[in-house]
């Protein structure tokens, strides 16, 4: 696993761009250092690497993700999420513990939103019996990023959205003063409005949402 990881790191470090890194770091409000490798180049590097080395073995996969997540440059967290998406079909029930750990570690919208909509959303489709106990734990936690995930995990569900659960979680966080919670509420409602516009309109008109949440929810209605 260490050999695989080192080869992966070497592949990316040779493409580091200090000038690009300055702008990328500034865009993320200086939350993390960057190698300076933008998404199209990053995807191409990883594509060639996987073609040569293949996917990591399942035995060491979680360890590899942990190692990538602990590395300082933000691109390595993006690589970890890409690898997690490629392992969707091999997802195990206990993997929710790893996803939760990634949500609350090095937390910012750029990783949390992908984990919420793509990884957690897919996990709950595969293990529907986990939806209620896990998402309830998250929404009633005091961690803003877990709450954001509980609100956003149904972003791609469309007609399969559990409307009752969505509105319950939004209601629980509706008074939050956190920007990222208010924004998540608006985003979740705006997305669900593509499927159930009348329901969303009625909910927004009858529930005392924060102005930001309301504005975002009604943006395309």
Name some characteristics of this structure:
221 residues; 13 helices
In short:
This protein is mainly α and 221 residues long. Helices cover 67% and strands 0% of the residues.
Per-chain topology:
Layout: H1 2-13, H2 18-27, H3 39-53, H4 61-70, H5 74-86, H6 95-104, H7 109-126, H8 131-139, H9 144-152, H10 163-173, H11 179-192, H12 197-206, H13 211-217
Structure description:
This protein is mainly α and about 220 residues long. About 65% of the residues lie in helices and about 0% in strands. It has helices at about 1-15, 20-25, 40-55, 60-70, 75-85, 95-105, 110-125, 130-140, 145-150, 165-175, 180-190, 195-205, 210-215. The radius of gyration is 19 Å and the shape is globular. The model has no long low-confidence stretch (mean pLDDT about 95).
């Amino acid at each position: 696993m260490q050999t695989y990881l080192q080869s992966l790191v070497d592949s990316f470090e040779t493409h580091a761009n200090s000038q690009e890194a300055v702008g990328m770091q500034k865009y993320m409000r200086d939350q993390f250092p960057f190698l300076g490798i933008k998404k199209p180049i990053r995807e191409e590097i990883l594509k060639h690497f996987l073609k040569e080395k293949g996917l990591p073995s399942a035995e060491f996969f979680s360890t590899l993700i942990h190692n990538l997540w602990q590395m300082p440059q933000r691109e390595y967290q993006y690589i970890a999420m890409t690898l997690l998406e490629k392992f969707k079909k091999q997802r195990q029930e206990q993997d929710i513990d790893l996803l939760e750990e990634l949500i609350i570690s090095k937390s910012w919208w750029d990783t949390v939103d992908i984990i919420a909509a793509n990884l957690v959303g897919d996990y709950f489709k595969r293990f529907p019996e986990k939806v209620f106990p896990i998402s309830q734990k998250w929404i009633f936690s005091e961690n803003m990023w877990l709450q954001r995930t509980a609100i956003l995990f149904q972003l791609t569900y469309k007609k399969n959205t559990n409307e009752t659960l969505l509105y319950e979680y939004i209601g629980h966080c509706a008074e939050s003063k956190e920007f990222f919670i208010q924004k998540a509420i608006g985003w979740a409602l705006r997305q669900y409005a593509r499927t159930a516009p009348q329901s969303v309109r009625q909910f927004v008109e009858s529930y005392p949402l924060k102005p930001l949440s309301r504005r975002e929810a009604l943006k395309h209605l």
